[in-house]
């Protein structure tokens, strides 16, 4: 249960559910339901409903000193117990403020209140201690209840130190479950299903799932270590070239890693993607060591002046052509002094297409010492999807080129 009006207003992104789901998966436990409620009285109703249907409920937020922070009050009411001041928690609060040379407001004393019979969970990173009410406190419901602070820098350490060990003991799980995500590009979701489902479904205790995005399919494997290992081996053998990551790296992370490992520099020349490819590369930490130049040559004049593309080549073949794509990649390679360069020129739409070059047409150029070539593609699925798919395709061509040159 995630509390906070800001989560429902959309002013704050709720990341707790996804993060805790991954943490719990390592125990072999699954989140069955997530509920988000505003601050205030709604917490009491939602908590009562959640405890009726659950073995354990984890609440985030609502442990602050203000009047709308009522998670502890809601817990006491639903459990049918009083709130009392926990002296150890109060002393910890006073020490927290004293160590920072700040006076503690009277309202902060509220944070030392604890439902009778519950355990205080220490919070070395903030003022709000957590609370744990063991199953016996909920009567016939036998539901364990955890109250955690909202800020991630306080919640996450407390979750790992205080919540996970208790859940492990309550559930009697060994913790040998795991999840692995294989990421592939250049293959359709239906092809993935067709080639793998029968083999993967034959593996006992394995749960599989697919997530398709523009120009990418992720295969999610969940189960015990041996089942996941076997399934990953089958998938990688079926799609050895298309599977670019077995450790949840995205394509730009893989590319930056390969460039770094090989000691090579990259340059990019973009037209229709408007810098999207360079943006993705520079999202990766360490890109500054391998990425030298990013040319955004949207106009024909820019292609001529910045990349040295001959004006007569553009005039004869058009800006969206094999010849121009190659010239752009070669110009980027020469101007930058990089080891490998890629270019892209195309028609993102929805206007600008012709019968010979419809909307979605794109040429991708690759230039590397002693070799240059261009590849034609057509992706007519809307301007934003076009740019994403083209950027993904360029990154994949670069990845494959680097892998081929490393053999």
From TrEMBL:
InterPro entries: CinA, CinA-like_C, CinA_C, Competence-induced_CinA, MoaB/Mog-like_dom_sf, MoaB/Mog_dom
Pfam families: CinA, MoCF_biosynth
Domain MoaB/Mog: 1-169
Family annotation (SMART domains): MoCF_biosynth
HAMAP family in UniProt: CinA_B (MF_00226_B)
Alphabetical list of NCBIfam families matching this protein: cinA_nterm, PncC_domain, PRK00549.1
Recorded family membership: Belongs to the CinA family.
Protein name according to UniProt: CinA-like protein
